[in-house]
Each structure stands twice: as C-alpha cells, then as structure tokens.
Amino acid sequence: MPVLFLRNIMISVNWRNQIDKIRFLFNSKRESYFLFYDILGFFPHHIQYYEHALLHKSIAVRSQKTGRLINNERLEFLGDAILDAVVGDLVYSCFSHSHEGFLTNLRSKIVQRDSLNKLAVEIGLDKLIKCDLPSPTHNHSLCGNALEALIGAIYLDRGYSYCKWFFENRIINRYIDLEKLARKEVNFKSKLVEWSQKNKIEVSFELIEQFFDKHNNPMFQTEVLISGISCGYGVGYSKKESQQKASEMAIKKIRKNKEIDSLFFEK
Amino acid sequence: MPVLFLRNIMISVNWRNQIDKIRFLFNSKRESYFLFYDILGFFPHHIQYYEHALLHKSIAVRSQKTGRLINNERLEFLGDAILDAVVGDLVYSCFSHSHEGFLTNLRSKIVQRDSLNKLAVEIGLDKLIKCDLPSPTHNHSLCGNALEALIGAIYLDRGYSYCKWFFENRIINRYIDLEKLARKEVNFKSKLVEWSQKNKIEVSFELIEQFFDKHNNPMFQTEVLISGISCGYGVGYSKKESQQKASEMAIKKIRKNKEIDSLFFEK
Predict the structure, then answer these.
(1) Domain boundaries, chain B
(2) DSSP secondary structure string for all residues of B55-91
(3) Which of A245, A247, B131, B188 can pair with A188 through a Cys bridge, CB separation 3.0 to 4.6 Å?
(4) Could you read off the pLDDT of A192-251 as tens digits, one per residue?
(5) Cα dihedral B137, B140, B141, B146 sign
(6) Of A66, A81, A252, which is closest to B85 when you measure between CB atoms?
(7) If one looks up domain A3-183 in CATH, what number appears?
(8) Which of B77, B160, B249 is opposite residue A160, by nearest beta carbon?
(9) For residue B125, what is the DSSP state?
(10) Does the structure's ipTM exceed the value 0.90?
C-alpha cells in the first residue's frame, strides 16, 4: 500500500482524535468511548460494533433493531480474515526477500490462538468481554476470539486501512518483535504433550518406517496417536523432526476441528 | 465499509480510466496495459506487479533491480489472504443474518482451488501466465494461484478497496450466483473417490462405531483410509453423513499438506 496513503491515515487519526475528544466529552456513553479509545488509539464512530465484538455467545443479548439474539461470532469470522490479510501484508513488507513458506510460518505464529489470547490480555480487552461462563479464564479461545471480533468491528466502522493502522501501531510495534519471532521455533511436540497431560488424554508416538531418500540420507516417518486414534504423521531427517511434524499436524487437526476436540473432551 | 466510500471508488475508477486510456495510448507497453485493462476494469499504475503475478515458478526470471530470481509465489501468499478478507466481507454483507459456520462454508466454496482455477480461465488469465511446464493445463493449481497473485498485485498497486471492487464487480457479479452457491452441497466423498481413481490410490471407508446421542438418536463414526493410512474420520446421524465428514477432513489434509500429497504420489 502506498506510503503516502498510510501517512495520510496517521495524520487523519491524530487530527480526528482531537475533535472527537471534545465531542465525546458530552456524550452519554463517554466512559465507553474513552475505554475503547485507550485500546484502539482512536475513537469509535459507531460504538455498537465494538460493544457487539465483546459479546460472547454464552450471553444472550437481543438486538434492539431486529430482535434477534446476537453474539460476536459473525464479527469474529470477519475479523479473522481481515487479520490474516493485515498480518500477511506486514510480514510481506518487512521480509521483502523471504520465501512464502517463511512468511506463512511467521504469520501463523502471530495469529495462532495462544498468541492472540495473550495480545488480547495485554491490551486489556479481557476485562471488557461480556460472558456468562462459570470460569471464563479456562476458555482459552475467548480472548483471542474477542480480539478477532474487534478487528471485524474496526473494519465495519472505519475500513481496512484503520485495521492495518491499529494492528501495526497498537499491537505489533508494542508487543511483538518480528525479527525475534521469525527466529523462534515452535516446539509442537511439547505443546501436544502439555495438552494431553492437562486433559488427561493419552498421546503416543510410533515410528512407522525408516527409509532412505534419493541421496541415501536416512529418513523417519512417525505417527502420532491420540487415545489410540491416528491424528497425524510426519517425515523428517531425524526421529525428533518427524515427531515434531506429526505433532504439528495433530495440533492443527485438534484446533481446526471442533468435532475432534469435543470427541476427546467427552472421553 | 461505508457505502459512500465504495461509491467514491467506483466514480474514481471510471474517471481515472478515461484519463489513463489516453495516457497509455502513447506508452511503449500499451498492448500490455490494455490487456490488463480488459481483465481488471482499470489500468495498472505499476504494470510490473501484474507481470510479476503471472510468472510461474517453473520459469526463471531475474529481477532487474535486485538481480534475484523471481516468481509469483510471494504475491500468491499475499493475494490469498486479501482474497479471503474480500470474500469474507462480501458474504458477511450479503447474508446479514447467517451464522458464521454458513459464512465459512460459503467462502470456502468460492475460494477453493477448483473454483479459482475456473474463474481464472473465465477472465482469460490462463492465456497470460508465463510458465515452462510440458503440460501446463495438467497443473491444476496454476491458474488459481495466478488469480491469487493478481489480487496481491492489485493490492500493492492500488490498495485493498480496489481488490474488493475488482472481485465484486469483475468476478462475483459476472460469474457467481451467491444464492445458488449457498444452496449447493459439496459432495466430498465423490471428490475423494474421483481423486483416488485418478491417482490409482486405494481409498476405503470403515464404520468404527455406532452409538446413541443424549437424545437417543443413532450416530455413526466413520474412518477414511488412504492406502491403509488413517486420513480422517467423521461423526454423523447417518453413515452417509459420517463418510461425507471423514472425506472432507481427508481432502483438507491432502490439500494443505504437500508432504502427504507427495507421499501418496510417490507410491
């Protein structure tokens, strides 16, 4: 995106903020407006989008306009995609000579559930979420989902460029060291083992095959079994590498497929 | 995004096109400019982005600026995310009361590989792709990938709003009936069987378990095996539904994980 355009956005944000600060001082919802200002770095135009983004599905709120029950799941759908685009653009620009495999990896480190949950807590979004759960802190995706929904709200309220401005200036520049993150290797095996211990589910690794590649290097294929069910496998130049890849596949499967997740938790 | 903003984009596209038409008549690359105009509905500002989007990795082109070998894979990474955001926004606005599960499904029907390949051919992008393959038409992802890279090029050249304008006006409104597509059910089982026959790989379905849900309805769990390896399973209220879900999981696994794909093709 042209630099001049982004500079214009910044000038526009600063200039609008001064006017809005005076305007919202006399608004009946001024407390809400200023709370969101602290998080966003600008004032909402339509505060109902942001309020909507913080409604977890456990709480039933009826829309005043349509009479339907509303929660933040639709906004989360929208925000999830916008976030991928925004982070995709940022890593594309920052690492101008890197291969797309590296970019995909780096983006997924930023937008993965754990990372978004932490970021949501760091910007103080967790305190504003409205939910009706016995132990909301145990619902691991709640905060990250609300952050995605917030991006969806910014998009509807101010458009794509503000989403980019927000994520770059209020999140990345404050909480993420891109260079450091790029070098960080995710240990999928330990993540999977941690998950299995927490949920008391058996996880085992089985070496299926050992063979040689075309250059005669030894290769290993490992299968990961969760409660005896095959949930992923990986091929690598060491047992460790193959276990790491198998774990990555199993984690993705668990995270993406709510059906599997509930299947295991029901056990 | 505000309607007024989008109307302004449309006026701006029409107005700029008239000036650009005269300007590019005297440009040495006028043929290229007019070719892209036919596809995009507007003239490129920086034509090199668009030329870059059409370079398949099989062809080695060296950048005049950096001296590095370039292809369209990085632009494809960028365009893929932008496309998800654009289509996400479109289905979110068109189906204002639909559940996010429905929206996710509908979006994936539009952005899935087969669909993007067809769209790329319909807008005539396939004829412009530069590649060095013995039978490019057999590379199924080539056209769809180029379309994603084109979206990446539009994003870098003109920004997000033009990507949205392009996909809405030049693709969705011309080639996709959203209401009809929303009703269309994807038959994952037949897709998987088709793939197995084509690649001569054995696929089998095994009923693992039959049980009852809490309301005493019978339920089925099916596992799908590809070459004897477990590649997915599904739970449903009929055998057909459970096979359908298991096939969907296996297809996703094959498509997302190039390692698995190559593993099967090597057999």
Answers:
(1) 3-183, 188-266
(2) B-TTS-EE-TTT--EE-SHHHHHHHHHHHHHHHHHHH
(3) A247
(4) 888 887 777 888 898 888 877 666 667 888 899 888 888 888 887 778 888 888 988 888
(5) positive
(6) A81
(7) 1.10.1520.10
(8) B160
(9) G
(10) no
